[in-house]
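In the previous lecture we treated proteins in isolation. Real proteins rarely work alone, and many bind small molecules. This record shows how such a complex is specified: first the sequence, then the SMILES for flavin-adenine dinucleotide.
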Amino acid sequence: MDFTLTDDQRGIRDAVLEHCSRFPDEYWLQRDHEGVFPHDFHRSMAESGWLGVAVPEDVGGGGLGITEAAIMMQAVAESGGGMTAASSVHGPVFGMQPVNLFGTAEQRRRMIPPVLTGEHRICFAVTEPDAGLDTTRLRTRAERRDGGYLVNGEKIWISVPTPSGRARTAPRTASTPSPTSWPAACACSRRPSPESPRSRRSRATSATWTGCAGEPNGSAGTATGGCSPSTPTRSR
Ligand SMILES: Cc1cc2nc3c(=O)[nH]c(=O)nc-3n(C[C@H](O)[C@H](O)[C@H](O)COP(=O)(O)OP(=O)(O)OC[C@H]3O[C@@H](n4cnc5c(N)ncnc54)[C@H](O)[C@@H]3O)c2cc1C
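The predicted 3D structure, ligand included, written as C-alpha cells:
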C-alpha cells in the first residue's frame, strides 16, 4: 500500500503545523498548570475551519475525508500540544460522523454546524467499564419514551466531558440486541454547566447516564435531548 501523501494532503499537514506553531510550548505548559481546557486553541481551530475537515460542505464542513482528518490530527498531536491538543479537537472532527451519516436532515443541520464553529463543544462517550474496543459489548440502553429516548448506562474515560455539556454516545436500542450488533449512535445534550475546578481537572471520568429525553429519527436511533449524568468521578 502506498502511504505517500498527495500534494493536497501535504498542504493540509503543513498548514496545520503552521497553525499549531502559534501555540508554543509555554501556552500548553500554562494550560497544564492551570488544568483548564485550551479554549484559545479550540476556537482558533474552529475559526480556521479545521473542525469540519471531514464533514460535507452542506453542513459547514470542508468536504474532505477521514484520511485528511487523520493527517490533520497527526499534525496537531505532533505539535507542542501533543495529545492534549489533539483531544481538545478530536470530538468535533470524528465524533459527529455518525450524526452526519445516520442523522436526519434536520438533525444534521441543527447539531453539526454549532459544533464546527466551536459554539457547542462535545465529547464522545462510548467506553464502558466492561466495553472498550469491543463495542459489541456495550450495555448502555436507549428506550423510546414519548418525544424521545431514556438513556441508562455507565461510561468511563470520557475526555473533557463537563465543560462541553454535550456528548455523542452509543447506546443500544430495543432493536439492537446485545451482543452481536452495533449500537445506535445517540447525540445527547444537556444544559451547559459552569466549569467547576473539579471538572476542569478531570481528564478521565466515569459518569452514570441516568436520563436523556431525545428526539428519535425513527430509524438509526440518533437522538438528542437533555441528559443528566451523575456527578463525574475520577476513574483509573
Ligand atoms: C487518556 C484517555 C482518554 C480517553 N478518552 C475517551 C473518550 O473521550 N471517550 C471514550 O469513549 N473513551 C475514551 N477513552 C477510552 C479508550 O478509547 C479505551 O481505553 C479504548 O477503547 C480501549 O478500551 P480498553 O481500555 O477497555 O481496552 P480493551 O478494549 O480491553 O483492549 C485491551 C487490549 O486488548 C487489545 N485488543 C482488544 N480487542 C482486540 C482484538 N479483537 N484483537 C486483538 N487485540 C485486541 C487492545 O489493543 C488492547 O491492547 C480514553 C482512554 C484514555 C487512556
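Summary for your notes: The chain is about 35% helix and 15% strand. Confidence is low (pLDDT under 50) at residues 179-183, 189-236.
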